[in-house]
Structure of Peptidyl-prolyl cis-trans isomerase:
Amino acid sequence: MKTIQAEIELQDGGVIALELYPETAPISVENFVKLARDGFYDGVIFHRVVPGFVIQGGDPTGTGMGGPGYQIKGEFRANGVKNDLKHTRGVLSMARAQAYDSAGSQFFIMVEDAPHLDGQYAAFGRVTNGMDVVDKIVEDSQNGVTAEMKTVRIL
């Protein structure tokens, strides 16, 4: 399977290495790559951190309500798209509102397995290195520290 390598570099120097799966979710991957290359994610925080569940970022407003000004098709089973990638620890997926085709720029990384998300959200990659950084984001959030992305690089 073809993959695209990427990495999220945090302001504190932490790096989360990612592998993206364009054959599984081509629209989501293309969108993430474009936004990263355009510098959209530079300086954006992980605005939602839920211990034992997810860390979520990609909103330029930092509120959970922002996005790129457009929406993409949700690539998951409930929306009529084959996507067998399970929401296990380390998986990267597109966040969305209630509407299936409402994803834009926000994404989340699974902190733990969450099978109830399978077929409901567009999983499009996984962490290949740096889950310790993800775990530190969760830990730091408990102390009021918010993780900020310096940049997202497509390698």
